Amino acid sequence: MIKKRCPWCGEDPLYIAYHDKEWGVPVKDDATLFEFLMLETFQAGLSWITVLKKRENFRKAFDGFDYKKIAKYSQSKIDSLLEDAGIIRNKLKVKATVTNAQAFIKVQEEFGSFSDYIWSFVDGAPIKNNLKTMAEAPANTPLSDAISKDLKKRGFKFVGSTVVYAHMQATGMVNDHLVDCFRYNEV
């Protein structure tokens, strides 16, 4: 029997694996939350598959997404990242990643964990939408607007409402699998 999937993942094996194993699965681990936040930052204005194909290059270039190390990056490290053809070499996004790592640590200090902070916006449980078509999936919501505003107030960069909503989808804060997708009831 053929599994029914959300149509956005198409036929690309990398995209299918991401859809089937990661997208929409609730993430409460700070290290993974930072990884997704960082990747979503680099996705701004680009397609997710572009970032997904470079994910392992990002992992290598950014010390395994270790936000504690990234928060301390020097200008020379930033300059070397901007020379790395394996990643998206956007100066503002690279600098934002360092700034976001620093802000991430401050949120941890205030709330105990970034997870406690970000999941408090949904009372600790995923929002389960009932989407029948991809056209019904919003690019942002009043909730992603509020989270974006709060993140920006805390010093985060490249965290507009659309980036935040994509982060919510990726980390399972919201379940936007279509109702006829085999993953809808699994996540």
Structural commentary:
This protein is mostly helical and 187 residues long. It has helices spanning 13-21, 30-43, 48-53, 55-61, 67-70, 75-81, 91-111, 114-119, 142-153, 161-170, and strands at residues 127-128, 174-175. The chain has one domain: Orthogonal Bundle (Endonuclease III, domain 1). The protein is built from 10 helices and 2 strands. Strands 1-2 form a two-stranded parallel ribbon. The radius of gyration is 16 Å and the shape is globular. The mean pLDDT is 97. GO terms for molecular function: DNA-3-methyladenine glycosylase activity.
Task: Give a summary of the structure in a few sentences.
This protein is mostly helical and 187 residues long.
List the helices and strands and how they pair.
Layout: H1 13-21, H2 30-43, H3 48-53, H4 55-61, H5 67-70, H6 75-81, H7 91-111, H8 114-119, E1 127-128, H9 142-153, H10 161-170, E2 174-175
Strand content is under 5%
Mean pLDDT: 97
Strand order of the largest sheet: 1-2
Secondary structure category: mainly alpha
Q: What overall geometry do the principal axes of the alpha carbons give? A: globular
Remind me, CATH topology? Answer: Endonuclease III, domain 1
CATH architecture: Orthogonal Bundle
Strand tally: 2
